[in-house]
Input
Amino acid sequence: METKIYKIEDCAACFRQIREAAKIIKTGGLVAFPTETVYGLGANACDPNASKKIYEAKGRPSDNPLIVHIAEFEDMYQIAEDVPAKAKLLSNAFWPGPLTIIVKKGKAVPYETTGGLDTVAVRMPAHKTALALIRESGCLIAAPSANKSGRPSPTLAAHVKEDLNGRIPLILDGGEVGIGIESTIVDLTEETPMILRPGYITADMLAEKIGTVWTDPAILTKDTSARPKAPGMKYRHYAPKADLIVIEGKKKNVIEKINALTREKQSQGRKVGVIGTDETIGYYQGDRVLTVGSGKDVDHIARNLYRILREFDEMETDVIYSESFRSFGIGQAVMNRLLKAAGHQVLMAKDNQGDTKIV
Ligand code: AMP
Ligand code: MG
Output
């Protein structure tokens, strides 16, 4: 199958292309499209065969449910068995936006879309092209990230092409996404709402609107026997080909530690990659040193992380050492994805390993 790519800069000017994409969705096909978080791979959420095509194209395990994307809050009443008051409060505050809400599944959504679960994940994306596609198709659009299963989520149309070329008929290219990591997922089906995946919308932001919010303990631990409530969180997604190790500690110590490890590996004939920031990359001696952005701008780091991980997959490196990044706000979600990519391999850099000066 040939994969077409349409550049969409302005939805009104690109109405013909959106209409063609909507027709593919309406007739049971797949379209990759930009959202503000990452690119999604969309299909009609109410058509079991269309949902199955998503799993096939991505090579996604069939027990990993899809997020249903909507353009109006009223669509919730089709999807959910009942719409909790907290869903309305969260929607007023954060939709359209990077928040996915889990509710009890209504009859309109088949089990093929929910990976066999009686609950369903719903989100209203804040991206004009995504909203135009949903509205024009007249469908609820099931869409996981538009990567091959096991690869980092796509933040550019070129990433979608890398993974899915020849497997889907159309990619809508909206340029680089704004956020760069997947939506926060909050489960409203339990007594106390629970975050199943951290993202741009933090626990504090949710708690301000709906009171106490817990975070699924299974997503914070490296214990692989803990069962996360979001089935997708148990898979080691985002894993680069090289071994990835995160180094924690004071910046000066981290640089010294990474350089000491680099020398050791290089003396064994191994190629070393380093993930640093604009402020620190000059201090590293790895074979490939990439910056993930300014250490002062965690939003920028979020936007760059998956692209950098993909770039390392193209390079010949045996091991990658990464700095760790601030773990508040979206930094928490960045660290969650980085630690997952690293299979939770973390080393602590201690004092007295040398005296690098950072200016
Ligand atoms: P992706 O769209 O690729 O970001 O993946 C969707 C994520 O949402 C996966 O981690 C799923 O496990 C999770 N998810 C979707 N539906 C549900 C649900 N009903 N209950 C819990 N997690 C869900
Ligand atoms: Mg995904």
